[in-house]
Amino acid sequence: MDAKKALPIDVLEEIEAWNLFKETAENDFKDSELRSVATEVDKKCAGLPVAIVTVARALRSKELYAWKDALAQLQRPSPSDMQSGVPAAVYSAIELSYNNLKSEELKQTFLLCGLLGHNARAEDLVRYGMGLRLFENVDTVEDTRNRVLTLVSNLKAFCLLRDSYSHERFDMHDFDCDVALAIASRDNHTFALKHEGVFDDWPDEERMRKLKMISLSFDSVEKLPHQLECPQLEFFCMGSKDSDAEIPVNFQLFLNYTLGFPSLEKVIMRQCPKMEIFSKRELSTSKLKGVQSTEGEYVGRWEGNLNATIQQLFIEKNDQNCEEETAVSF
């Protein structure tokens, strides 16, 4: 589906791999039975550092039965390189770590991080998580922010996330991101395209009707479907990695579609200074409650319907730019 690029992957020698495995698991495996299982688990990582670290960290301090279960999981067939773009050993390792996450909340956060991609803002995770109701027993934005930071920290401890260039952001390894998207596609009815991929074939109508999350980029999509009917859609993200990019002609045709998103409850518009309208045709968003457009905004604006709200935000943005230009001229 995405264009795959060949990446050089370092493979460790057997002794180096075993030493890294023991170091990460924080275990010398003096118990003979545990050592026997652990060495087989290590072999399933195929000498790939990202697989070794991910698996060993997930199994740290676990009992023998957990190691045996992990070995059984790693022995099952995994998606091939052509299907997922990830080496089989790495895919199995990341999926094992995902399966060992302690809560559904943590799992869903990891999958959402995959949609956000590299160097994502924790504050965006707060917004999207609130909109999707991912977090339980949180009543305020501050409570949600604290929960998100805790979840991000836990995912880093499992080697599924890593530090970014700023403390306000987090990052993912390419493999972690690809596996997250693959799992989300399989289990969460998600359709997502990364910026560097090229895509020319849409899901069939039956799958489109089941989709709950869609994330697209102008950089990846060369053609649009004849219709876009997603009655269960809860999350829709469309844009470009270049905030100044013009909307391509094929996406401008998107404005003439009749669109129905009856499950959509929240829209977040960021870095869309030239967006005047969402659709020129009939637009059904019966559950939509607000459009968020500025930093720190969580309630959102609402002018009765999505098009009217986007138009009003566009007018206000233009008025603000005019005032700034006038102030500079004086």
TrEMBL record:
GO BP annotations, alphabetical order: defense response
GO MF terms held by the record: ADP binding; ATP binding
Organism taxonomic ancestry: Eukaryota, Viridiplantae, Streptophyta, Embryophyta, Tracheophyta
Protein name: Disease resistance RPS5-like protein
SUPFAM superfamilies reported in the protein's UniProt record: P-loop containing nucleoside triphosphate hydrolases
Key words, A-Z: Nucleotide-binding, Plant defense
Source organism superkingdom: Eukaryota
